[in-house]
């Protein structure tokens, strides 16, 4: 893998046991330098989000002018409150136009909603052109199909043209050169999303009833006639069991999609009239779900499949791309090179290079010449240094289930045993997962001298339908917490960690798990760090009814336990582990009221702020850390809390105590 002076110096420090190259926690909290680079169809330009002094901008890199500076033309920020506007996504339409999605948060009939619009940026005229804004109500940025030659797109939008269907989507054709709009498909009261084939023909639709949970799929064979219902059922297991057409084949009524009917998500050919698979799975991964399908430029053939086993990987069915991926694996190590963008004929590829212990670097690979051009490092402060090593582990839960987890070992303590540990629990909980890939939080904590473990407890995504269902069946706050405890026991039995020196840390559901650990198992956990967590489940369910509907809000829990029994804020009395609570004041997914409920409950139970708990309310933060300063504060607050309640180095450590300064920035 291409090396730099920084990575070589870091490797030398690890080999000699030096600790002078300890990276300050503040550097892990900085914004990524490059995000979501997109190569133009002709392969001459890149649209990319880049950070500058804590602020992100969207710009163009002209590959025909080596060494030239990016041309920035839009500022990228996340909205924080009503009236704010943000640039969310971007893509190429032809070779001279970048189409961007803008969103603004507004108050509509007493409810906060995100309004979306498309804006085209003409690289030659330097002008911004609003696309299909007139008559659009709420949603106006869902691109269904692109024709690069004619510089047109199919847009799904909601429209005020028909007041009775103002929030139902229609399909319009939009010319990005002059903004001309033509209606292709009128709104339908049972359609929430339209689906088109590779030729840009509307072939199917999906609708969802928020109250009964039924998903309705409608379909037609060609570009004539009405769509007819072919599926209308509810997934009461919340295990993503529906099948959706992703690629329409040239064969009559045949499409490719994924489905977990056999327990794991696999790729199937479907007869769209019956929604039944034709033959066995086209592609599957033993023990894991498959992910997104990669289609060819014409949208009628399957080129590859993205999936995650222990690491993110791509299986290329296209012979040419399979040969290229094989070369990359041999040259840089299996799964260390991920192709994520290409020009029209796949002769120029954007590749992320980096192992699980590296932040990664973005390269342009010219397939014909064999040249690799470094465009930039994802994190400028970390470059492509080899940091704290990661590996996959599996352990037995106390009920016999096997759980996959990811272990990050502190690089400055290569031979030490019985180390202090911080468990980082992912959000969700049902669907998301951790994997063997660079994790900036895990690296920041390991750099302090802690072992970090990230378990994919039951309910985590990627391990099949039954694994999600096991999480919902008496899992929330109960069996899922046992899975986390069992990881500590396993690592203690292996001699890797000291079970008396463990803390838990997490955001969103991970914040809930940390609070639940502090409340339910205070003798196990020296401290916990809870960010953006749900602490009063009955109150959260009331909030979610308006957000997800009366059916969708039932995702929280299933089983014998009452929501009050597993709500930390409803059980504040008794012994707790010391807990740090962090929450964004502008969080719309988990309102800050959840943190305040917990803080007030702890105070009412006689617990003292600064001793038993600490509360940090971030005035500008949402649920997603839109600003660099908030993530730095999150990590540095965690560092201080850990140093107070579970220091990384103590006198009894065999590798001797090491004084570590905490950044005051």
From TrEMBL:
According to the record, the residues making up region (Disordered) are: 1-22
Stored SUPFAM superfamilies: alpha/beta-Hydrolases, DPP6 N-terminal domain-like
Q: Where is the composition biased (Polar residues)?
A: 1-10
Q: Which UniProt keywords apply?
A: Hydrolase
User: Where's the Peptidase S9 prolyl oligopeptidase catalytic domain?
Assistant: 437-645
Organism of origin is Sphingorhabdus buctiana
Q: What is its EC number?
A: 3.4.-.-
Its transmembrane ranges are none
Could you say which enzyme class this protein belongs to?
hydrolase
MF annotations from Gene Ontology: hydrolase activity
Q: What is this protein called?
A: Alpha/beta hydrolase family protein
Keyword hit for Transport: no
């Amino acid at each position: 893998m291409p090396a730099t002076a920084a990575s070589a110096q870091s490797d030398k420090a690890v080999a000699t046991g030096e600790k002078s190259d300890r990276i300050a926690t503040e550097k892990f909290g900085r914004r990524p330098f490059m995000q979501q680079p997109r190569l133009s169809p002709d392969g001459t330009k890149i649209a990319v989000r880049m950070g500058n002094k804590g602020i992100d901008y969207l710009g163009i890199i002209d590959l025909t002018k080596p060494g030239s500076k990016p041309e920035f033309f839009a500022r990228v920020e996340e909205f924080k409150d009503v009236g704010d506007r943000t640039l969310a996504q971007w893509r190429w339409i032809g070779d001279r136009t970048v189409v961007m999605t803008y969103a603004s948060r507004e108050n509509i009939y007493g409810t906060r909603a995100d309004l979306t619009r498309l804006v085209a940026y003409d690289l030659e005229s330097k002008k911004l052109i609003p696309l299909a804004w007139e008559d659009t109500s709420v949603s106006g940025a869902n691109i269904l199909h692109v024709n690069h030659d004619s510089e047109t797109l199919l847009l799904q939008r909601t429209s005020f043209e028909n007041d009775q269907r103002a929030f139902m989507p229609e399909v319009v054709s939009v010319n990005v050169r002059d903004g001309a709009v033509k209606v292709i498909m009128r709104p339908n009261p049972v359609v929430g999303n339209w689906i088109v084939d590779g030729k840009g023909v509307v072939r199917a639709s999906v609708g969802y009833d928020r109250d009964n949970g039924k998903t309705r799929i409608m379909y037609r064979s060609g570009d004539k006639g009405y769509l007819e219902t072919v599926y209308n059922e509810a997934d009461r297991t919340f295990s993503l069991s529906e099948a959706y057409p992703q690629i329409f084949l040239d064969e009559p009524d045949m499409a490719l999609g994924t489905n977990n009917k056999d327990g794991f998500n696999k790729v199937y050919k479907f007869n769209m009239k019956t929604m039944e698979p034709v033959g066995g799975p086209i592609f599957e991964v033993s023990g894991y779900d498959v992910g997104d399908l990669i289609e060819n430029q014409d949208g009628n053939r399957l080129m590859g499949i993205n999936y995650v086993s222990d690491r993110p990987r791509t299986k290329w069915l296209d012979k040419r791309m399979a040969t290229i991926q094989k070369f990359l694996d041999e040259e840089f190590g299996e799964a260390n090179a991920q192709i994520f963008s290409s020009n029209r004929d796949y002769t120029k590829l954007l590749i992320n290079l980096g192992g699980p212990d590296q932040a990664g670097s973005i390269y342009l690979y010219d397939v014909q010449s064999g040249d690799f051009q470094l465009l930039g490092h994802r994190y400028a402060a970390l470059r492509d240094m080899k940091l704290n090593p990661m590996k996959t582990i599996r352990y037995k839960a106390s009920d016999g289930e096997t759980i996959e987890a990811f272990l990050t070992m502190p690089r400055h303590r290569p031979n030490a045993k019985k180390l202090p540990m911080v468990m980082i629990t992912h959000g969700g909980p049902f669907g998301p997962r951790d994997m063997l890939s660079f994790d900036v939080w895990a690296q920041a904590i390991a750099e302090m001298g802690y072992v970090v473990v990230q378990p994919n407890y039951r309910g985590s995504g990627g391990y099949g339908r039954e694994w999600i269902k096991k999480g919902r069946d008496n899992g929330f706050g109960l069996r899922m917490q046992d899975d986390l405890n069992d990881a500590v026991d396993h690592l203690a039995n292996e001699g890797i960690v000291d079970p008396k020196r463990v803390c838990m840390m997490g955001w969103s559901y991970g914040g809930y798990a940390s609070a639940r650990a502090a409340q339910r198992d205070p003798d196990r956990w020296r401290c916990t760090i809870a960010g953006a967590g749900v602490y009063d489940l009955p109150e959260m369910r009331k909030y979610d009814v308006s957000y997800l509907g009366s059916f969708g809000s039932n995702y929280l829990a299933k089983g014998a336990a009452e929501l009050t029994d597993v709500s930390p804020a409803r059980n504040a009395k008794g012994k707790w582990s010391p807990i740090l609570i962090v929450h964004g004041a502008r969080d719309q997914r988990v309102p800050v009221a959840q943190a305040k409920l917990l803080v007030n409950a702890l105070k009412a139970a006689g617990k003292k702020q600064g001793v038993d708990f600490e509360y940090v309310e971030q005035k500008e933060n949402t649920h997603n850390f839109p600003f660099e300063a908030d993530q730095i504060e999150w990590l540095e607050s965690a560092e201080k809390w850990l140093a107070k309640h579970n220091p990384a180095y103590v006198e009894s450590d065999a590798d001797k105590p090491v004084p570590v300064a905490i950044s005051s920035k």
